[in-house]
Write a structure and sequence with these properties.
The protein is an alpha/beta fold. The protein has one domain: 3-Layer(aba) Sandwich (Rossmann fold). Helix content is 54%, strand content 10%. It has a five-stranded parallel β-sheet with strand order 2-1-3-4-5, sandwiched between helices. α4 runs parallel beside α14 and α9 runs parallel beside α10. The longest helix is centred in the N-terminal third of the chain and has 24 residues. The radius of gyration is 19 Å and the shape is globular.
Length: 280
């Protein structure tokens, strides 16, 4: 009995370590690192999708892979990393610039908002190394960082840049998280107009869907961290799809308040595809 219990504990420890690596340390196979940049096909245009986990696609529906399969004329790089904020995008922006891209999509801000919702969330981003222990994210810092990202991309690349409003943060649109995400997204829209960028209305599309299909959420935004852990376990250990997890958690667009199921992810894919086709 004791031996069985010890084996069970070892299994749990190994599973936890594997999941931690999968979520916190993983990078996309087609991330624009040095090795992948050496494989750039000069006969194709280069598209870099820059952002956080909602671009990365390993704790969320992978709309970038979908897009890549539908854009035969583009070589698509996935530069999304889980838990990233505007701070971390600035640290790795040279990876994107080095691709000499023709087109860049930018989807960032969910974690910037989430880090302001509770001191525990701020501490988690610090523990993950996404921000320093001295950093306390806020709206003014977000605006400064976002504007600097755009400045560098415009100055150092020839790319056409598409910026996206934030996906919904939970399905209670009156919750403070969504109120803040509205504020951050309004800034992105204003900056897009000022800098003559392509604006992709992800948030508007998702809010429209929820307003047309009203359904009280089963879980609150305050349960996000628990739901995220359950989602990862259900996806990687139990083999559930993101859509199945969403249904089990009582949501329509998200498995855990922060990430995308196929309905939400396909909205993003189609909006980006329309923007690219419009330019072509």
């Amino acid at each position: 009995m004791l031996l069985t219990f010890l084996f069970f504990l070892l299994f749990l420890a190994a599973a936890y370590a594997w999941l931690y690596q999968k979520v916190s340390k993983h990078i996309p196979e087609n991330y624009p690192n040095i090795q992948n940049r050496q494989q750039i096909d000069a006969s194709k245009k280069t598209l870099v999708c820059f952002g956080d986990s909602n671009t990365h696609g390993n704790v969320s529906y992978n709309w970038v892979n979908d897009l890549s399969s539908e854009l035969a004329d583009y070589q698509v790089f996935n530069a999304g990393i889980n838990s990233d904020l505007t701070y971390t995008l600035l640290r790795r922006i040279n990876d994107i610039i080095a691709c000499n891209p023709d087109f860049i999509t930018l989807l960032i801000g969910t974690n910037d908002v989430n880090s302001t919702m509770h001191i525990k969330m701020e501490k988690r981003y610090q523990q993950l190394g996404r921000i320093s222990k001295e950093t306390s994210p806020n709206f003014e810092e977000f605006k400064k960082n976002y504007a600097e990202i755009i400045h560098q991309l415009k100055q150092k690349t020839k790319a056409k840049i598409a910026v996206m409003s934030l996906p919904v943060m939970g399905e209670d649109l009156a919750h403070e998280a969504n109120i803040r995400a509205d504020k951050y997204s309004n800034f992105i829209k204003e900056l897009a107009e000022k800098e003559q960028l392509i604006y992709v209305p992800v948030r508007e599309k998702q809010k429209e869907f929820l307003l047309k299909n009203p359904k009280p959420p089963k879980h609150t935004f305050e349960e996000t961290y628990k739901l995220l852990n359950l989602s990862v376990i259900r996806y990687y250990i139990l083999g559930n799809s993101w859509d199945e997890i969403s249904r089990k958690h009582g949501f329509q667009l998200t498995p855990d308040n922060l990430h995308q199921n196929s309905i939400a992810g396909i909205m993003i894919r189609d909006l980006v595809k329309d923007a690219i086709n419009m330019l072509n």
